[in-house]
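From the pipeline queue, job 12 of 40. The input is one protein chain; the requested action is below.

Action: predict structure.
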Amino acid sequence: MSASQFIVMDNAQALYVRAAEEIAHLAGEAICTHGEFTLCLTGGTTPASTYELLATRFHLSVDWKEVQFFWGDERCVQPDDRASNFGMANRTMLSKLALRPEQIHRIRGEDEPVQAAQEYERELRSFFRMEQAGDFPSFNLMLLGLGENAHVASLFPRHPALFEKTRLAVAVEVDAAPRRRVSLTMPVINSAQRVMFLVSGEQKAAAVRNILQGPPDQEQYPAQFVKPRSSEIVWLMDKAAASELK
């Protein structure tokens, strides 16, 4: 069963710095031990500020040529669209690092969603050398944001995709713009070696409370599904996001 670690920072800026520190530290450990760090990115304003710090203040803290970048979900838009999760990561971090093209494993949001999900699944199976059905990739670190409705990646409340057991990536339509998206599935999220939630702002406080201290209702609060089988969940929040916790 997974354990949880809670880190509450005074404000959003302190959260961004602490998140960058944690990511840089975990990257160093993985690269020292295994020669590689597999990082699954998330979208949102909190990660964007963290990515900017990683590419600037923490640029020399990570051996970036040994980092492999993946995404937990993608909006079905062009990669240069402001809504694109890849586009955000590229503007804030990737374009500022000396990376090889093969280090970037993006979801092709410009393709048809079903096709993009299938291609991303093939990419994951190839990279992680997964040959058997029922195998799932194990990222060194899975970053997750948190929606105000407690969704993670693009797995929204009461969506059938929450219960997918075999596929790695699925096309979904959600009640948010843009509606068409591609998301990793819960078994992939729960196979990560470490999961880190990055949550800031008072508007997320109710969701944090419902997930951590509310009654069990995974369909209504998808983040309650996040229970890595053999690893740790780190909740990295600012005081505003944690303000409704008892």
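Job complete. The CA atoms of residues 150 and 207 lie 5 Å apart.
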